[in-house]
Structure formats: C-alpha cells, structure tokens
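To: structure desk
From: M.T.
Subject: fold request, one chain
Message: Could you run this one when you get a chance? Sequence is below, nothing fancy, just the single chain.
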Amino acid sequence: MKWLLNFLPRPFLIQLSLIFRPFIKAFYKGDRFTDPIDGSSYRAFLPYGYDKLRPNALCPGTLSLERHRFLWLYLQRKTTFLEDKLNVLHVAPEQVFYNKFKQFDHWNYTTTDLHSPLADIKADICALPFEDNSYDLILCNHVLEHIPDDLKAMEELYRVLKKGGTLIAQVPLNENAEATFEDDSITDSTERTKIFGQYDHVRVYGKDYYKRLARAGFKTEGVNFLQEISSNERDQYALPKQECIPVAVK
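Reply: Done. Structure tokens follow.
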C-alpha cells in the first residue's frame, strides 16, 4: 500500500484518504507517531508532497500535515485562543481544524473561501464581505502564496480584524532567502511546481514576508516555537524540520 501511495497524485491521495479513512486509519494503527490534534497514534504516517514526497507527512486519521500539527501545538501551549470566547474567521479552512473548531461553543466561528465546500461564506480574500473590526482571530494558512495581489489580501485581513486582534497566516517560506521570489510570466503548472513548489502557487516567500505583512499595517513576528519542543516530540508528532509561526497583530 505504501508503494502505491508514493505514486498517486496529491489531491487524489487526499480524496482517497477521505473515502477510505476508517480502513486506512486501522491499517496504520500503531504507536510510532501521534497526531496531537486528536491524540490518535499510528505505526506510520502517509507520504505527501507535490515536487518531492515527504515521508510520514499526512496523518491517516485526521489528514493533518506537519504544519497543522505544529500550529495546533502552538495554539495549545503558547496561547489561550482555544479556550477564549472569540469571533474567529477561518480562511480556506483545513478539514482537520474545521472538524475541531465547529464543535467549539465558545467561538463564533466563520469560514470563508471562494471555492471550498467547507466555507460558510463564498468570498474573494481580496474583497471580503465583512464589517471592519469584526474578528478577534483570523486563521489564513497556506493561502497567500496562491493570491496574485497578496498585499490587497493582507489589507483586507487587516481591515476585518479587531484592534489588538491576531492573524496567523502560515505560508511556505524559504528561511534561507532574504527576498520573496515571484514571476508572473511563469504560468505552466509543471514549471510552477518546479519553481514555486506547487502548481497553483505564484511565489515563494522569503524572510521579507513579515515586512510585507507590516506594509498592510500589522505588527509581525516569526515565533520560533519549534525550538521549545523536544526532539522526541518533534519525531513523535512528525513536525516540520524548520518553521516559525507567523503572528501578526493589529
């Protein structure tokens, strides 16, 4: 089964996992890896990736990836967001989080996306249909790298966030690059995957990502939370090798 999964297209792998999730979860049951989001354990996670497959990346049960598990630990250990009564906007909601957050009675939880079936409100991130200063917390993960006018999207997120509110907007970020790379002339999906890491990405962010958020008005920082997690837990939860949590405050 693992050999076959290595050669399946990534979107198809997600759909296949959704359909056969109970069987796949049972097949991979074990005690080598744990998803901290629901506490389930497995002998292995599934490979995942576009340009290059990452071993033990996709949880068979929750369909979480490394970045989801990392963000969950950050929210759980370094913030009170999961316990606070909040107005929350979730842009392009990930299923693993959607299933959890929809159960939160203490959150006024709204999801939005242009196409996702999980979206309560279908909307363009560059023209959000929400009032100014509406949300305490906005989650917008792995979205901005898809948006041609990312500054406009950031300005919209800033507008609908309350003063003192927090935006968490994870993106694929090359920590070794000072500047973001983008080239509008690259439109071929194969070439985009090769250069940007995925067929529908339009840029690779560099360390200037935080300055781009600041241009929209945010006070930003990259929280190096990974260094606070033991090497044993990094292995157990199959976390990213190198990543900061980008936190932007209005």
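Reply (cont.): The longest helix spans residues 66-78. Let me know if you need anything else for the meeting.
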